[in-house]
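My main concern about presentation is that the manuscript never shows what a single data entry looks like. Each protein is reduced to its one-letter sequence and a matching series of backbone shape codes. For the editor and my fellow referees, an illustration may be useful. For illustration, here is how one protein appears when written out as sequence plus structure tokens:
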Amino acid sequence: MNKKAAMSLAALLGVAGIIAVFMTLHKPAAPLAMAPALTQCLTGLSDVGFNNEPIRPIPLSLPLNKGKVALGEKLFNEPKLSHDDSISCAYCHDLSLGGTDRKVHSLGSGGSSGDVNSPTVFNSGLNYRQFWDGRAATLEDQIDGPIHHPNEMASNWPEVAGKLSKDSAYLSAFTKLYPDIGIQELSIKDAIATFECSLTTPNSRFDKFLRGNPNAITVEEKQGYELFKAYGCAACHQGVNVGGNMYQTFGVTADYFGDRGGEGKADLGRFNITGDEKDRHKFRVPSLRLVVLTPPYFHDGTAGSLDKTIDVMAKYQLGRSISVEDRGLIVKFLYTLPGEYNGKPLL
């Protein structure tokens, strides 16, 4: 990414984008000239104003290596990535369920329970950080999390590479796509991350509306969008992914965790990474692109419906209540956000 393109991208994504672009411009070159998949995912975003709306359409296509996408898809569904060959990435990120498992906490190898609700893998490459606490800067970094976690895949890269190397189909694919290094941590992560980059959901009805088709959404859905902005939801949920590009404290206007009770380590958010008191209860804002398909909600999975989610957000983030009528209209707007995957509507 050259500096001119990077600054155009920053203009599109706002302050969070500027931070991400700065890291892209100043980070050391990736080994073996493999560009970080996060950068690949962002390639092609336009700085077109779209009538100065806070939300931007997802690019209709991304310039990704089709061979790596195909290999990454196979690896994404490969249980050999786990220590006991029991689960794959798709186990917690089922593409038929909006890229999640719709569980409060995902189950890992041996039936062990994770600490947080699994976010959707769809459009994850459009987030500027990965995980609820933002501890991974790129999709490649994110892959280390489930691989090494004792309650998830409980494996390691030498073990994974060793198992894949015994498969002639994998040997052939990696030799073709990664002739200099073959099957090892870097190439496995690059292929999976490239596939994850391909998991965008463009051409939603709302994106068609943004691109100039006033009839792509109904009058009520337009009213819902105006309310979404008027209540202040768009302050955190904006940009191409309708979120995913900033951190925010959960409980800005009231004590969410005090009211909920039972605070655990996972509830500390960014504080677990930085140790900075200002990061206590701070999380990466989730994308709303597929929110209608991915209950339950929040990092703790405590909200089972969109109605409850909106009420919680209104109380703890906005310090106000939202009428039943307005809430219903906002939900109608949210139903315009899911787009297509591989040319097929997700909703």
Notes: The first strand starts at residue 247 and ends at 249. The two ends are 34 Å apart (CA to CA). The chain is about 40% helix and 5% strand. Confidence is low (pLDDT under 50) at residues 1-36.
